[in-house]
Write a structure and sequence with these properties.
With 284 residues, this protein is an alpha+beta fold. The chain is built from ten helices and eleven strands.
Length: 284
Amino acid sequence: MQFQQGQFLGNYQKRRESFGVSIAEMTPTVPEHDVETHTHDDAHFLLLMDGLYLSSARGMPDICNETAIIMNPPGTRHRDCFRGTHGRFLTVSMSGEDWRAATKDFPVGDYALRMDATALLSAYRIWRELHQWDDASALVIEAESHTLFSEARLANKQVECPAPQWLARTRELLRDTSLETPRFSELAKTADLHPVYFARAFRHRYGCSHGEYLRRCRLERATGLLRDKRLSLATIAMQCGFVDQSHFNHSFHQTYRVSPGEFRLMAKQEAMVHCIQDAKRAVC
């Protein structure tokens, strides 16, 4: 199977075109056992927002049940799919020709890979624009798309030039940290490095400080928890390691430009649309 630009295994919930970039929020329609190996003519970033996702992209687990963003360059051949037909994802796609023109001055790799937490910031801003489209949205989409290219370049560099074991171990420790914030001196001691060199090496590799990276990872986790309406904002703040709900609200809004409540409301509204559509199909 060969998919043309903007063609995916799913139903379109919302879709926009902007300067050659196609943005769409979708729900899966094809069960796992019916998905065949296929090739995408276009290039696209896929933001996994809900559901269990199976992907062969580098850096992805066998089954992913958390928010993630994947880069798929032109010609990607895979059998990526959802387990079942429950799920939600965002695609940011463009033609292979436009992709090559945008990346001609720097390599981003020719294989699918999972991008880091920092790329989620741009993906969610694109998702927000899709839901709150106005005259300025096209410019936002163009700028955020270039940011995704930049993050893709960094992700490719990290794959091609693996980080030293101590640096990768530190990053994973920060990703796994939820309630307790490790002291910087303890992290440096674990890596057996002088704190000054340790701080410089981490920022050079990942483009941010240890604290900034930890906050981004916690916010990434929060976006998943916000879809569970049984959890209060105060509970989510606690589970993600924020001092209190006020601190969580401020950090979330500063990063995603929407409040946690607004983010939850958008997800709730989309879920209501899904329920109505399912009901209509059942009647038919």
